[in-house]
Amino acid sequence: MSARRSTVVITGAGSGIGRATAEAFAADGWDMLLIGRRTEKLQETVAGLNNSDCATIAALDVAEPGAMKNAVQAFAQKKGGIEALVANAGINPQRANAIDTTDEFWDETLRVNLTGTHRSCQAVLPYMQKAQAGAIVTLGSIAGQVGMIDRAAYGPSKAAVIEYTRNLALDFGADHIRANCVCPGFVITDINRDWLEALPKDAHAQLVGKHPLGLGTPEDVAATILFLCQPGSRWISGVDLSVDGGYTAQ
User: Fold this and answer.
1) DSSP codes of every residue in 50-102
2) 3-state DSSP call for residue 199?
3) What is the SS3 assignment for 218?
4) Which of 127, 154, 164, 247 is catalytic?
5) Which residues pair with 240 in a beta bridge?
6) How far from the centroid of its chain's Cα atoms is residue 91's Cα?
7) CA distances from 193 to 139, 178, 188 (A)
8) Beta-carbon neighbour count of residue 8 at 10 Å?
9) What is the pLDDT of residues 60-114, one digit of tens each?
10) Does 154 participate in catalysis according to the annotation?
């Protein structure tokens, strides 16, 4: 009988960093539960994997009470446990300052980015506690580490994710559960490509210039996420790690 493969839950797996992360974990031989809001986007992710048999999909809202718990329970019972979580699901629906940020967008940004991360972690932690092992990677942002223009809701939501992750590291370290937050810089994804291309030439050049190594790709971030779930990172916990081409070095 072959040994059981390591298992990971990846939220926001239908596009961008989440899709690249699924590809990285599949190539590394993991069994995956891929979470997203739209079934068709998850199916596109699975179709692009080198081994589609390693993936189970579940279309749901990560912030909906009970949704993550039910999906994770079914996956854990089938696979025998959960070794890792990548809490990647997040939104940035409105780029605005404090005056112009609507109540609707404020509430929805915090609901998905912070509450969704919390409920994802709540769903996997009991299985990690039982195994006395586990790795959690949350997705912050450099917008949660440094101030940015027109990020009145998004920046605070990601700063809260960073602090939440530190608390996870302290609360569950005795259970040999590690928690780290990856904070990407400006990454070229399907979601923000149109926004980047619409920037005036000078503004685009200025944005790129703030990244000494240039703008990143989803694969750049995914490689870091995978490392933080592998044995080589066994003594890393409670970190907010900038993956930003040098942006926050300034």
Assistant:
1) S-GGGEEEEE--TTSTTHHHHHHHHHHHHHT---EEEE----------TTT--
2) coil
3) helix
4) 154
5) 181
6) 11
7) 19, 33, 6
8) 28
9) 999 999 999 999 999 999 999 999 999 999 998 888 899 999 999 999 999 999 9
10) yes
* In contact, 204 and 196? CB cutoff 8 Å: yes
Strand order in the sheet with 177-184: 55-59, 31-36, 7-11, 84-87, 134-139, 177-184, 240-243
Helix (H, G, I), strand (E, B) or coil at 206: helix
- For the stretch 206-243, pLDDT in tens is 888 899 999 999 999 999 999 999 999 999 999 999 99
Pairing of strands 31-36, 177-184: unpaired
Which domains does the chain possess?
Answer: 7-189+217-241 (3.40.50.720)
pLDDT of residue 52 exceeding 90: no
Q: In this structure, what token pair is assigned to residue 219?
A: 């694969």
Q: What element of type H or E holds 34?
A: strand 31-36
Alpha helices per DSSP H over the chain: 16-27, 39-47, 67-79, 103-110, 116-131, 154-172, 190-198, 201-209, 218-228
1: pLDDT strictly greater than 50 = no
Q: Please report the sign of the dihedral spanned by the C-alpha atoms of residue 186, residue 190, residue 192, residue 198.
A: positive
Cα–chain center distance at 240? 13
